[in-house]
Amino acid sequence: MSLITNFRNFITNARHILYVSYKPSEDRYKKTAKIIIIGIVIIGTMGLIIAIVISLLVAGNFSLV
To answer: Where are the domains of the chain?
Structure first.
């Protein structure tokens, strides 16, 4: 395929994506943000707990440095 044909296909696909997409409502946006923040906190807490357990097993004391 030529470069021009690839570019036309890209533009066609981009227009289709913009046509079917929509802006989320404020309520849906807030719910999504809350879920993401909760997930980040859970993963961070799990990482901290794992770091503490490994620190206690390897060094024998609580030292994260």
So the answer is: 25-65
